[in-house]
Amino acid sequence: MKKIALVVGATGITGSNLAQELVSQGWQTYGLARHPENLPTGVIPIQADLFAIDDLQQALQDVAPTHLFINTWVRRATEAENVKDNATMVRNVLDVLSSKKTVQHVALVTGLKHYLGPFEAYAKEGALPETPLREEQPRLDLPNFYYAQEDEVYAAAQRDGFSWSVHRPHTVIGKAVGNLMNLGSTLAVYASICKHTGRKFIWPGSAAQWEGLSDVTDASILAKQLIWASTTEGAKNTAFNIVNGDVFRWKWLWPRIADWFGISAVGYAGAVRPLAVEMQHDAAIWQAIAQQHGLVNDRLSSLASPWHTDLDLGRPIEVMTDMKNSRTRGFSAFQSTENSFFTLFARLRDEKIIP
């Protein structure tokens, strides 16, 4: 049977890389977004608003996917609003597809806030989980939009009879523009500003993150796990952590990133120095850099997300991730973290996103 994928959130960091991988593996691939622009070659664009169910029904009337990949979320002012709106988006697309009876598998991408808590209580002292983070760890007794999204998938699976998988990446490293959480591109832009201005490349985070072990998730390895889980019988109806497969310390990686850009690094020096503060007046500087080098985007806010980088690098504990559920089922893909960053930086430079 022909495999037909619908990627929801196809312009984001996880969705766009997944769509590209699906096309390369011969899938008929539809990419749904509110503004489906600059999709990978071969992806069929679908424009729709997930909150407007009539709009969604019309957009999907001629689409009958066998596999649904959900890679989208919105951030609101409170977690109660996050729960409501993120659950609504997932529920709406599942309800619209329900009558088609073609969906065999639904894969949902969430993340490590499953274990570390929502934005309002993220990695707070007194409620820190034991690491490495393991798939069998129970939900926290807190409202969390990841849990709400999962529950919508579970309910629809019981109703419609499809299998499901949930994928929990750590920080995702990959190319996307306008993404709400993009540590790799944020560091690339920050480093480029440091080089232009002669500033030091200052570590913004905590001592625990500087000294402790960490891991990240390359967007390409997440894409591989999503496709593997959706087509492997023994992987159905399971939640999976997904990281590159190696571990590192930021005190080792930070100067290597600085060296790649030809700038001087400053490590942890006794206090957190938030990137949101360090970059708060850099919008005009980025415009000047973009003009000088002929870059394709002069809007700093669409390329960098310092608030999210601060959230990740400011955590009071080291964070690493166990991958038992997929490793024991045969998923063996590996990605060098150093190469994840350097490959991303080279791509951003080649595409004139950074100088």
TrEMBL record:
Transmembrane segments: none annotated. It comes from the Bacteria. Residues 66-355 form the PRISE-like Rossmann-fold domain. SUPFAM superfamilies: NAD(P)-binding Rossmann-fold domains. This is SDR family oxidoreductase. It comes from Sphingobacterium oryzagri.
